[in-house]
Amino acid sequence: MGARKKISAIKRKEALKTMYFAKLQNVPSSPRKMRLVVDLVRGMEVNKALGVLKFSSKGAAAKVEKLLRSAIANWEMKNERKADAGELYVSKVFVDCGTTLKRMRPAPQGRGYRIRKRSNHITLFVDSKSNKEDQK
Q: Can you give the pTM of this predicted structure?
C-alpha cells in the first residue's frame, strides 16, 4: 500500500469512529418498495420514527425498524450512555440495489419470461441534535 493510500485509509477510519450507523444487506425486497418506507423516517426524531415504522402497514417497515434500533444501540455503545428522549434523529438513510436473482417463467408458445428477484442494502445514520448544533 502506498503512503497516500494509507493516509487516506487512516482518515476514513477516523471519520467512521465519529459516525453512528447500521447496515442491513441483501434484504429480499425491491429497492423501490424499501425507499417508500425509508422516505417516511428520513430526518425524523428517533422515537417518532420508531412509532411511524411500528404502525406502518408496509412489510419493509419491520426491517427498517429493527435496523433503526440497531443504529440507536450502536450510538449508545460508542457514547457509553443511554440516549435521552428527543436527542437522536435519523440524519441519513439510503437504499442501494443488491444482487438480482434471475429466473425464468414458462410462457405461451414455448417462450420464457424473465423474473428478476431484486434485493437491496440499507444504510441508516443517526446523530445527536447537540452534535449538529456544535458544528454550526
A: 0.86
